[in-house]
């Protein structure tokens, strides 16, 4: 059964993002007497789910797969048992529209899903400490590389592979002493985030909060950033009340402790939903080739003008990338960051791709042989 737009907007789950698409995806499970719901928190094999009948606690036993990418996650839409059962179970996940994924520290190179069915990825960067542009580029690469979901793609997927629109929020902008200094900081971040909106905000003074709330009113958003970036304080400002616990950051380095320990989905008063996440110490890439290309689009555009199609942008003649560095139009830091993220992603992919591992091994051996030959030639020992 398909709902009209009016019916979807009046549905009890509409504040959580329910629409005609979700109604269609859920139809087979409605025939089985199950209830639709959105997961707002996951904790040790159980999850909190919002259903048309209200909030409930459900067991995830029936959807524990061998694939870690398919575990129940905050943001998932699910089919759950109706009232009366004890315990009640999540019976299945509806196909994800988007999934924000990072790699784990596991040597097996497993992915970890941080949030699903999101429309905005908000990367929080604190202005209380020196800007780390490389880290911003890493977060953006992760945001733009996340899976586009299992089936349905949301309208915002037209612009980003992840299906979620990235946004860089510079928190604690009240700590910057003058408007000129703040303007320069915004410009620096815009250079590292081409095509991405950069918004300075202050949870203390309220600067930028209304604008951010308006941006996030359409769909679901996830807050990402390091500990101490002000995510929980920002969430409270957007919610209009102290829902998330907040702890002070250390004055010596601006770092904070993990105030938020779980991912929680909350409805914003002005519309939209918000997922707050624990601070991320490690930001491992996961299948990020497309994301690297988008974050460093100007380098890939320049590479089209290189004389050789396999140009390494080092000392090759006719390298358009090196020419841009020489004339100052491309910061060398950007090229270094681009190379670093590409190498890291290649290592991650190679852990699960035997063909790529073999190619990398051949490349290492070839470069090693070339290096030894060059050294012997230099010493005059070539036979």
CATH class assignment of the largest domain: Alpha Beta
Number of strands: 13
Overall pLDDT, averaged? 81
* Uncertain ranges: 151-162, 249-254
CATH architecture group name of the largest domain: 3-Layer(aba) Sandwich
CATH superfamily grouping of the largest domain:
P-loop containing nucleotide triphosphate hydrolases
> How would you sum up the global shape?
globular
Strand content: 15-25%
Order of helices and strands: HHEEEEEEEEHEHEHEHEEHHHHH
> How far apart are the termini?
80 Å
Question: Biggest β-sheet: count, sense, barrel?
Answer: 6 strands, mixed
Order of the strands making up the biggest sheet = 10-9-8-11-13-12
Q: Which structural class fits the helix and strand makeup?
A: alpha/beta
How helical, in percent, are the residues?
Answer: 25-40%
The fold-level CATH name of the largest domain is Rossmann fold
Radius of gyration: 24 Å
Number of helices: 11
Domain tally: 3
Please tell me about this protein's structure.
With 383 residues, the chain is an alpha/beta fold. The chain has three domains: 5-93, Nucleic acid-binding proteins (OB fold (Dihydrolipoamide Acetyltransferase, E2P), Beta Barrel), CATH 2.40.50; 99-276, Rossmann fold, CATH 3.40.50; 289-379, Ribonucleotide Reductase Protein R1, domain 1 (Orthogonal Bundle), CATH 1.10.40. It is built from eleven helices and 13 strands. It has helices spanning 5-9, 20-30, 133-145, 179-192, 209-216, 231-239, 289-295, 297-303, 320-326, 332-350, 354-379; strands at residues 35-43, 46-51, 54-59, 77-80, 90-93, 99-103, 111-116, 120-126, 165-171, 197-200, 220-224, 264-267, 273-276. The strands form three sheets. A six-stranded mixed sheet has the order 10-9-8-11-13-12, sandwiched between helices. Strands 3-2-1-4-5 form a five-stranded antiparallel sheet. A two-stranded antiparallel ribbon has the order 6-7. A hairpin with a 7-residue loop joins strand 6 (99-103) and strand 7. Helix 3 (133-145) crosses helix 7 and helix 10 crosses helix 11. The chain starts with a helix and ends with a helix.
């Amino acid at each position: 059964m398909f709902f009209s737009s009016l019916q979807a907007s009046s549905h009890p789950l509409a504040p959580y993002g329910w629409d005609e698409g979700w109604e269609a995806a859920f139809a087979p499970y409605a025939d089985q007497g199950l209830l639709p719901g959105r997961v707002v928190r996951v904790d040790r094999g159980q999850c909190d789910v919002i259903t048309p009948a209200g909030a409930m606690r459900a067991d995830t036993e029936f959807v524990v797969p061998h694939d870690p990418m398919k575990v129940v996650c905050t943001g998932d839409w699910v089919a759950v048992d109706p009232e009366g059962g004890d315990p009640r179970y999540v019976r299945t996940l509806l196909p994800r529209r988007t999934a924000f994924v990072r790699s784990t520290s596991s040597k097996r190179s497993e992915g970890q899903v941080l949030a699903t069915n999101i429309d905005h990825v908000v990367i929080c960067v604190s202005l209380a400490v020196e800007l780390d542009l490389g880290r911003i580029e890493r977060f953006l690469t992760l945001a733009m590389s996340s899976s586009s979901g299992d089936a349905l793609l949301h309208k915002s997927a037209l612009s980003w592979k992840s299906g979620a629109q990235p946004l860089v929020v510079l928190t604690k902008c009240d700590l910057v002493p003058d408007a000129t200094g703040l303007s320069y900081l915004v410009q620096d971040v815009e250079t590292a985030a081409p095509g991405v909106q950069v918004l300075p905000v202050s949870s203390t003074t309220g600067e930028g909060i209304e604008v951010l709330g308006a941006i996030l009113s359409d769909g679901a958003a996830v807050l990402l950033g390091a500990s101490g970036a002000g995510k929980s304080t920002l969430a409270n400002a957007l919610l209009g009340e102290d829902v998330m616990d907040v702890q002070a950051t250390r004055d010596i380095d601006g770092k904070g402790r993990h105030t938020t320990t779980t991912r929680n989905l909350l409805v914003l008063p002005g519309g939209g939903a918000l997922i707050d996440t624990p601070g991320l110490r490690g930001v491992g890439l996961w299948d990020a080739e497309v994301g690297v290309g988008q974050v460093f689009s100007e380098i890939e555009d320049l590479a089209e003008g290189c004389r050789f199609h396999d140009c390494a942008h080092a000392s090759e003649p006719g390298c358009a990338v090196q020419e841009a560095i020489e004339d100052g139009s491309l910061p060398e830091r950007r090229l270094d960051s681009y190379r670093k993220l590409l190498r890291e992603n290649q290592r991650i992919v190679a852990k699960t791709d035997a063909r790529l591992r073999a190619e990398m091994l051949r490349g290492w051996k070839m470069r090693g042989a070339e290096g030894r030959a060059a050294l012997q030639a230099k010493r005059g020992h070539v036979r």
